[in-house]
Amino acid sequence: MFKDASFHLLYIGESKLSHEIQDAVKKTFSFPVKIIEKNLTEPWKKLGVNNQLFVLVRPDNYMAFISDTFDERELKNHFKKYFN
Asked: Which of 18, 29, 44, 58 could form an S-S bond across to 49 if both were Cys, CB 3.0 to 4.6 Å?
């Protein structure tokens, strides 16, 4: 799923990702982020995902951030220590 050497935002949810959040992704990060959308299915629920989930995956496939909401302010604060 994360073959390209780039940041990926994995979105798991019951509906498609809104255009507002897609635009916010582009504005929030100073680097390109590929968005991958997956439906919230029973296998995800068995893993404990009950609502929408956002997982930012680094180019080396480690998770950089995980949240059940896309909060631009929270993400910017989190990455402030890494990017000035």
From this structure: 44
In sequence order, what are the residues at sequence separation of 6 or more whose Cβ sits closer than 8 angstroms to the Cβ of residue 52? Answer: 11, 12, 13, 14, 40, 68, 69
**Any idea which residue has 């990702």 for tokens?**
17
pTM to 2 decimal places: 0.84
Cα-based angle 9, 54, 42 (whole degrees, multiple of 5): 110
Of 64, 69, 65, whose CA–CA distance to 24 is shortest? 69
Q: What is the pLDDT of residues 60-76, one digit of tens each?
A: 999 988 999 888 888 87
- The answer to whether 54 and 66 are in contact (CB under 8 A) is yes
d(CA 43, CA 50): 11
Q: Amino acid identity, residue 40?
A: L
| Phi/psi at 73 (5° precision) | -65, -45
